[in-house]
What does this fold into?
Amino acid sequence: MSNLWIEVDLDAVKHNYYQVLSLLTPETKLMAVVKADAYGLGAVEVARVLQEEGCTSFAVTAVDEALILRSQGITGEVLVLGPTSEEDWKAALGENIQLTVAQVEWLHAIDDIAAAMGKKAVVHLKLETGMGRTGFTEDKLAALSCVLRETEYIEVAGAYTHLARGAQRDTSYTRGQHEKFMRLLKKFEESGVTIPAKHICNSAAFLDFPEYHYDYVRVGTLLGGHYPSSIFDRKLDLKDPWKVKARITHLQKVPKGTYVGYQSLYKSKTDTMLAVVPAGYAHGFGIEPKLVPQGILDLVKIIIKNTAALFGFQLGREKILYKGNPVSIAGKVGMQLTVLDLGTVDCKYGEEIVLPIRRTLANPRITRIYKKNNEFYKKRIIREGFFEINTEYSNTEV
It folds into this structure.
């Protein structure tokens, strides 16, 4: 049995799905965003349980991700949100995967491939309204409309935009993006191009702007049990499906004044028990994303946090829990091993400790143990890029 694993509670994902549905505007479809391996939870497992509960629309960033879903029995709509290339299009169309189009030049090539395959290429048009990343700007609309009228095998299923500041308190920028989006759609209609469906809401806008729900809402963060930011009031009863656990693999009682780890940065303040767990930065443990300060106050908080870390105090980091008690890291996080200072807590080899590893930073080779219908089963995923090349199931006790 692995000494480091991740428990994913699919019953919690199911619970969150129904919580989102409770606020969904009638006639609006939920498009479940399972990009980046469902934010680390496991795209196939999450999509599968949502499909079992009636979800028929999914979104990912890359064609490779969409092909995995298809190969594992996901039969509903699958939309690729990110840019794609010509080498991806035939495979995508062959599996009835919907593509986002954000450049006029792509349309004739996609049309030719679809014609050769004798089928329609279903696409969504991405409109640029203020994200500054991908999408058609207003000056491209005339050429876009012209090309769409020329192509025979392109089926426009919808149009959407991406909100840049949906998770911020000031909603004026989001409202401005919405106004621009609606203006661009109107220009399409005036040029004779029909847009069957429109969508603008991510998880943040879904909560704040029910009047923007339209034909689809693209929700991912909420399904994973998190709010887009701390500013949101708790409109939903969300459950966190993610928990990382490790077993103690080594114990050693040391006297006061013992140095621990690289550069001897840690010195025990009392007689204490040190425990080794098989987790390190190679697994994503101890790694945090670099964030740009959002104002002077945020900058001050970052400076204070980093200054405290210099003296061995970790502020703002999620707690490491052992038997319900918070424990501290003794020294630096290693590549694959980390030492914890357990103090005087009674401990044994093989006992479990809960570790804070961010979902999207967790090494995908860490064993996942999934829970569904209150039963656990183990799924080990060996990956080459984003593709599952071997999947092994077995019953297990947790």
